[in-house]
From TrEMBL:
<dbReference type="Pfam" id="PF07992">
    <property type="entry name" value="Pyr_redox_2"/>
</dbReference>
<dbReference type="InterPro" id="IPR050151">
    <property type="entry name" value="Class-I_Pyr_Nuc-Dis_Oxidored"/>
</dbReference>
<feature type="domain" description="Pyridine nucleotide-disulphide oxidoreductase dimerisation">
    <location>
        <begin position="346"/>
        <end position="454"/>
    </location>
</feature>
<keyword id="KW-1015">Disulfide bond</keyword>
<dbReference type="InterPro" id="IPR023753">
    <property type="entry name" value="FAD/NAD-binding_dom"/>
</dbReference>
<dbReference type="Pfam" id="PF02852">
    <property type="entry name" value="Pyr_redox_dim"/>
</dbReference>
<comment type="similarity">
    <text>Belongs to the class-I pyridine nucleotide-disulfide oxidoreductase family.</text>
</comment>
<dbReference type="InterPro" id="IPR006258">
    <property type="entry name" value="Lipoamide_DH"/>
</dbReference>
<dbReference type="InterPro" id="IPR012999">
    <property type="entry name" value="Pyr_OxRdtase_I_AS"/>
</dbReference>
<keyword id="KW-0274">FAD</keyword>
<keyword id="KW-0520">NAD</keyword>
<keyword id="KW-0560">Oxidoreductase</keyword>
<keyword id="KW-0285">Flavoprotein</keyword>
<dbReference type="InterPro" id="IPR001100">
    <property type="entry name" value="Pyr_nuc-diS_OxRdtase"/>
</dbReference>
<feature type="domain" description="FAD/NAD(P)-binding">
    <location>
        <begin position="7"/>
        <end position="327"/>
    </location>
</feature>
<protein>
    <recommendedName>
        <fullName>Dihydrolipoyl dehydrogenase</fullName>
        <ecNumber>1.8.1.4</ecNumber>
    </recommendedName>
</protein>
<dbReference type="GO" id="GO:0004148">
    <property type="term" value="F:dihydrolipoyl dehydrogenase (NADH) activity"/>
</dbReference>
Length: 464
């Protein structure tokens, strides 16, 4: 029990990292509270991130299927009419139901929700709103927020961040997306499908930094085919807003003549930064690292005894499932168990059409470590994808040339986000490409392409 403290565990932040940590701590018999400054639980993910973006991606995908004539090819003749208010309504409804679900889970597991902003008074004492509480263990799970572009003001009307881009009251004529990462491509896809002309400006010479090189090139081709324009190797140096229009100044990243571009909506999506402002970390004896993150050890301990940190506020990919797994592990460590997250096997998914997913090493990173064998299988040769008229994409399996152990798997396919789970599980069990190749996969499924790519590692796929 908490003895001289109010709580055994106080979690700061109720995003996927924090709420999961709080629930698991309570399940393990620890007296637990969770401080959250938002009106609703669930953090970025449920309120303004994963869930509302997927609600808009799903709805806009169906609209696009109908509007583009692809449904007509299947013998379904429809002329869709966009009702954007209803589309936003179902997004809000999904958010309401899921955030309400976390409130229910807190009650069920007897987690106390402390409403308000938390700031440290010392390593075991935190002010939440007007109250002060003490805890034997404090877990910092304050997440991240949008990285601003210096000199560019987000007004959530003409210049928006991801939160504003989820809620646009009308379809823009020309949306310029600054940043060719996951969030920019997902939200750019939503508004392109609903009728906007979309231009994506990326500073690097290719989109989707961090993804496998082949995947980056191929997905760029697919998005171009869908109608998104790209300006790669280009820097946005100025955004001037006049009335309901913006003029962007673009410069080649490597130097050269500047040009201008007009837009009625500019989405700034250049990344996210850890939330530590106002936490008074210094009062707990903590500092952030050069990237503004809270440094931790393998067990999620900060340098201060009894203070732990997880999720977007610590180093690693800023992903909800990574935060959730860290939430479980930190609670188990606090309870004296052994909580572990294998940070080498965290899948990444882009929920566009088709989906783009990967786990483990890129081919480039794997080659830096040693000799590799690579097997690739195109979705065009997968019977299910072909039947469903989904020819774009491929699966790629990267294995160690000597041991055959799978080092990375990358997919572009309509259901790549679901397919990548089997690759993650196989890799977690230390699978070789042969293990995947000799595992029976149901027919006809997109997942058979994973098996065929694994067979291709030894040069023996059946269907190409
Ligand atoms: C548009 C968008 C789409 C995304 N899509 C995906 C996706 O499809 N899949 C995926 O895996 N990830 C996605 N992400 C990323 C994902 O949302 C984050 O990785 C995840 O939410 C991080 O979880 P967290 O618990 O660390 O922090 P957060 O979810 O950011 O939660 C932190 C919480 O702490 C609260 N807080 C902060 N400071 C304090 C304080 N001092 N006192 C009290 N409360 C405080 C905040 O209000 C917030 O609610 C997306 C993000 C965005 C923006």
């Amino acid at each position: 029990m908490a003895d001289k403290y109010d709580y055994d565990v106080l979690v700061i932040g109720a995003g996927p990292g924090g709420y999961v940590a709080a629930i698991r701590a309570a399940q393990l018999g620890l007296k637990t509270a969770c401080a959250e400054s938002r009106e609703t639980l669930g953090g970025t993910c449920l309120n303004v991130g994963c869930i509302p973006s997927k609600a808009m991606l799903h709805a806009s995908e169906l609209y696009d299927e109908a509007a583009s004539g692809r449904m007509a090819k299947l013998g379904i003749k429809v002329t869709p009419e966009l009702d954007l208010d209803t589309m936003h309504g179902q997004r809000k409804d999904a958010v309401k139901q899921l955030t309400g679900g976390i409130e229910y889970l807190f009650k069920k597991n007897k987690v106390t929700w402390l409403k308000g902003r938390a700031a440290f008074e010392d390593a075991h004492k935190v002010k939440v709103g007007d109250d002060t509480v003490t805890a034997k263990n404090i877990v910092i799970a304050t997440g991240s927020s949008v990285t601003p572009l210096p000199g560019v003001e987000i007004d959530q009307k003409v210049v928006v961040d991801s939160t504003g881009a989820l809620e646009l009251p009308k379809v823009p004529e020309h949306m310029v997306v600054i940043g060719g990462g996951v969030i920019g491509l997902e939200l750019g896809s939503v508004w392109r499908r609903l009728g906007a002309k979309v231009t994506c400006i990326e500073f690097l010479d290719q989109i989707l930094p961090g993804f496998d090189g082949d995947v980056r090139k191929e997905s760029n081709k697919i998005f171009k085919k869908q109608g998104i324009d790209f300006k790669l190797g280009t820097k946005v140096s100025k955004v001037a807003v006049k009335g309901d229009k913006a003029t962007l100044t673009l410069e080649p990243a490597k130097g050269g003549d500047a040009e201008t571009m007009e837009a009625d909506c500019v989405l700034v999506s250049i990344g996210r930064r850890p939330n530590t402002d106002g936490l008074a970390l210094d009062k707990a004896g903590l500092k952030t690292n050069q990237r503004g993150q809270i440094a931790i050890d393998h067990d999620f301990r900060t340098g201060v005894d009894g203070v732990w940190a997880i999720g977007d506020v610590v180093p690693g990919p800023m992903l909800a499932h990574k935060a959730e797994d860290e939430g479980i592990a930190v609670a188990e460590n606090i309870a004296g168990q052994t909580g572990i997250v294998n940070h080498d096997i965290i899948p990444s998914v882009v929920y566009t059409w088709p989906e783009i997913a990967g786990v483990g090493l890129t081919e480039e990173a794997a080659k830096e470590k040693g000799e590799v064998k690579v097997g690739k299988f195109p979705m065009m040769a997968n019977s299910r994808a072909k039947t469903n008229h989904e020819p774009d994409g491929f699966v790629k399996v990267i294995a160690d040339a000597k041991t055959d152990r799978v080092l990375g798997v990358w997919c572009i396919a309509s259901v790549a986000g679901t397919m990548i789970a089997q690759a993650a599980q196989a890799m977690e069990f230390g699978a070789t490409s042969e293990d995947i190749a000799y595992t029976c996969h149901a027919h006809p499924t997109h997942s058979e392409a994973v098996k065929e790519a694994a067979m291709a590692v030894t040069g023996k796929p059946i269907h190409i």
